Amino acid sequence: MKCTGFAVGLIVCLMFLVGCSHEEIPTTHLSEITVTAESDAVHFAFDEPPRITKIVKPSYPEIAREDGIGGKVVLTIIVDKEGQVVEAKILLAEPADIFNEAALNAVLQYEFEPAKKDGEPIKVQVGQTIIFTLTSRKPL
After folding, report:
1. Is the predicted pLDDT of residue 137 greater than 80, yes or no?
2. Strand-strand pairing, 124-132 and 33-36
3. Are 36 and 45 contacting, i.e. CB atoms less than 8 angstroms apart?
4. What are the C-alpha distances in Å from 89 to residues 24, 78, 128, 140?
5. CA dihedral of 88, 111, 131, 61, whole degrees rounded to 10
6. pLDDT value of residue 42
7. Residue 139, CA distances (Å) to 64, 79, 125, 134, 136 in order
8. Which of 95, 71, 85 lies closest to 127 in space, CA to CA?
9. pLDDT tens digits for 72-130?
10. Strand partners of residue 96
C-alpha cells in the first residue's frame, strides 16, 4: 500500500497503520514502536533510538469485554532525556473513546533507555499502536 495524500496527519497515520515509511522521515522500529520527531523541543536526528525497558499492558475496558468489542489506539509519546514518558496523545482510536483511557494509562507508565545523539541522552517522540482483542468470550 502506498502512502498517499497531502496531509501530514494522514501520512503519519498510514505509517503507523500499514508500516510504510516516507523517505524524508527517518524511522526506527522497536517492537511495535516507531521513532519520529517533529519539533524543536523534540530531537529529529539521533545516533541511538530509545530502547523500551518497561511496557505496561493496558487493562481491557469492562464495557468492551462485555460487548465483545475489540479495537486499536494509535498514540504519540514524548520520551524525555531520562527515558520517562512526559506526554502522550491519541492520534486515532477505533472505535472512538472505548479504549482511549486504558491506552493512555498504560503508555504513561512505559519506561525507556533514552535516545542518544553524540553520546548524550535526548528527548524524542515515539509512536505506539495498541491493538485490543478478546482471546475468549465469557459464557452467556
Report:
1. no
2. antiparallel
3. no
4. 23, 9, 10, 36
5. -80
6. 67
7. 15, 41, 42, 13, 9
8. 85
9. 999 999 999 999 999 999 999 999 999 999 999 999 999 999 999 999 999 999 889 99
10. none
